[in-house]
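Data deposition worksheet. Section B asks for the primary sequence of the deposited chain exactly as it was used as input, without tags or linkers unless they were present during the calculation. Section C holds the resulting structure in token form. Section D is free text for depositor observations; keep each observation to a single sentence. Incomplete worksheets are returned to the depositor.
Section A, Depositor: J.P.
Section B:
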Amino acid sequence: MPSERPKPIWLIPNLLSLDAPLVAVAWLYMFAKTWRVNYLPWLAYVSLALVVWLIYVLDRLLDASMGSHRARSKARHEFHCKHSRTFGALAWAAAGIASVMIIKGLPMTIYGYALVGALMVGGFFTLSILSNAESNEIPYAKNVVAGLTFAYGTAMLAHAYTGFEKEALIRSPEMICFAVLCILNISAIDLWEHANQSNDIEIKASDELALTLPLTLLGGASLVFALRDPDLTTRPFFYAILTGAALLQILNRTRSQWSTSSLRVLADAALLVPLLIFTASSKT
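Section C:
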């Protein structure tokens, strides 16, 4: 029998579910710098990475175990299903280590944030199970909850060290813009796959517009927020949001030139490159 072709190196982070934790850690750093957090322990970064990785692994194992058409079409789900025992053991280890870090190394105020985050994660997995029943439909509700949960979970660790009221996080323009960027990033692949599977020109145009319009609005909003900041404290952050939206827009316009696997990796890169823009603009 022919041996399995080795996976390209650039796809390994996606197959191992390492892409999302990297994005979360990068944006946690940007949130902490933007909100002038004087001290954010390394445990916050590590625990966030572990929790995000755990959630992504469980979601992919769940999708693969349910055998949906959507899951079977994704290499990363096949990879997780093939190595389910290994990922299961690592997931238990990640859960244990993250729990110890949170309990021992993070302040009590984080528990109030974490309760809301846990409810959001529960809603995400509920919608994840339900969305598999309609494999040909784009799971907008799941994507919205996933984006909100990812953004809230990332931002809350920095916000817990600011001394601000918890309710201020939900009203924060930084968190809201990042949540929208996350939602569009998650929805992008679904829209691109949906368009590729159809021969209807109107459906293809509709799927492209469903991403183009909100990305344009997000880019415009981030630019307005950046220019309206008299103290320049949040301007680098909104430049980062603008960069992420612009990169996703470029991918949306050039998606026919890339494979599905390449688009997944590039969509993740579109949320990592803004860290360079944030760092560069923070020094000017």
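Section D:
Residues 201-227 form the longest helix (27 residues).
DSSP finds 14 helices and no strands in the chain.
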